[in-house]
């Protein structure tokens, strides 16, 4: 059994969907979890369901908000052992119709944010010579998808970032890995047209959409001592949609 007792874990995008499931999973393994997102009411609801976890509202695409928020977390908790960069958005359109603001916003929230959050946990992790950073990418970053060039670019960027940072901090016993979910049932995928949903389901070897818990289980493994010798890796949780 995985035991994370005594470890502080920060999960971004923890107010709903995959992030909430990750936060609950780490909490049930004994970690002291801090919940990050923008919507305070939803954060509070998630926190209450977990018996009162600390919440730290912020927009992860803002360098200043991330710096202030993470400083407060470290002041309160004394350290951060596990960082899960999960916050993400889509602004889908075919390239010819994609507005510059939709390109920028998706890159800022999905990709630029992980530079900011990771930067703010590195010093404390280096000091304790241990840390786990887990970045949530997407199968779309690996295989692309029509109408999602901005999203795919941000998610592919996460993989390059992860492999580089894994090389930078490996000697300090900090691991940096990616989980790349396939089609997971959440608010994000509920927005996709039914035809797209059917098309995707047909390409999944296991014949079903994934659950948020399927993704949370992979994150739990990477956060644990069982994954001590795994770094710079991309773990696909796609039910065989992508191999
Ligand atoms: P979701 O249900 O839409 O939840 C997104 C979370 O991110 C929310 O908690 C949201 O809270 C937070 N968030 C969004 N923008 C933010 C910002 N600027 N600052 C801070 N928090 C922000 O999405 P999901 O389906 O659970 O997806 C979670 C992650 O998995 C994303 O990175 C997504 O790309 C990835 N993923 C999902 C799937 C899937 O099938 N669902 C597949 C592959 C990868 P607020 O809006 O309150 O800020």
Structure explained in plain terms:
It is a single chain. This protein has helices spanning 17-28, 40-49, 63-77, 100-127, 139-143, 149-169, 187-190, 194-202, 212-223, and strands at residues 8-12, 32-36, 54-55, 82-85, 131-136, 174-181, 234-237. It has 243 residues and is of the alpha/beta class. The protein has one domain (8-237): 3-Layer(aba) Sandwich (Rossmann fold). Strands 3-2-1-4-5-6-7 form a seven-stranded parallel beta sheet, with helices on both faces. Strand 4, helix 4 and strand 5 form a beta-alpha-beta unit. Helix 1 (17-28) crosses helix 9 and helix 4 runs parallel beside helix 6. The relative contact order is 0.15.
Listed once per kind, the bound small molecules are:
NADP nicotinamide-adenine-dinucleotide phosphate
Quickly count the helices. Answer: 9
Share of residues in helices: 40-55%
Estimate the strand proportion.
5-15%
**How do the strands line up in the largest sheet?**
3-2-1-4-5-6-7
Q: What's the Cα radius of gyration? A: 17 Å
Tally of discrete structural domains: 1
The rough form would be described as globular
Task: State the CATH class.
Answer: Alpha Beta
CATH superfamily membership, which one?
NAD(P)-binding Rossmann-like Domain
Major beta sheet summary: 7 strands, parallel
Secondary-structure-based class equals alpha/beta
Here the CATH topology equals: Rossmann fold
Strand element count? 7
Mean pLDDT: 97
Query: What's the SSE pattern?
Result: EHEHEHEHEHHEHHHE
Low-confidence stretches: none
């Amino acid at each position: 059994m995985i035991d994370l007792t005594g470890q502080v874990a920060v999960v971004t995008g923890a107010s709903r969907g995959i992030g909430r499931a990750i936060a609950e999973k780490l909490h049930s393994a004994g970690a002291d979890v801090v919940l990050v997102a923008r919507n305070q009411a939803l954060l509070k609801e998630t926190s209450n369901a977990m018996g009162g976890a600390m919440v730290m509202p912020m927009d992860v695409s803002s360098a200043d908000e991330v710096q202030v928020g993470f400083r407060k977390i470290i002041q309160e908790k004394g350290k951060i052992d596990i960082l899960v960069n999960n916050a993400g958005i889509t602004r889908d359109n075919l390239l010819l119709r994609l507005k510059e603001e939709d390109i920028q916003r998706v890159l800022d929230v999905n990709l630029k944010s992980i530079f900011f959050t990771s930067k703010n946990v590195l010093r404390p992790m280096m000091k304790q010579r241990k840390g786990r950073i887990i970045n949530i990418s997407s199968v779309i970053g690996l295989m692309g998808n029509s109408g999602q060039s901005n999203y795919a670019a941000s998610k592919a960027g996460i993989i390059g970032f992860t492999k580089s940072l894994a090389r930078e901090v490996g000697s300090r016993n900090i691991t940096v890995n990616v989980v790349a979910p396939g089609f997971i049932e959440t608010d994000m995928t509920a927005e996709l047209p039914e035809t797209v949903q059917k098309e995707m389901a047909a390409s999944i070897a296991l014949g079903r959409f994934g659950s948020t818990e399927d993704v949370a289980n992979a994150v739990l493994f990477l956060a644990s001592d069982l994954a001590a010798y795994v770094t710079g890796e991309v773990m696909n949780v796609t039910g065989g949609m992508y191999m």
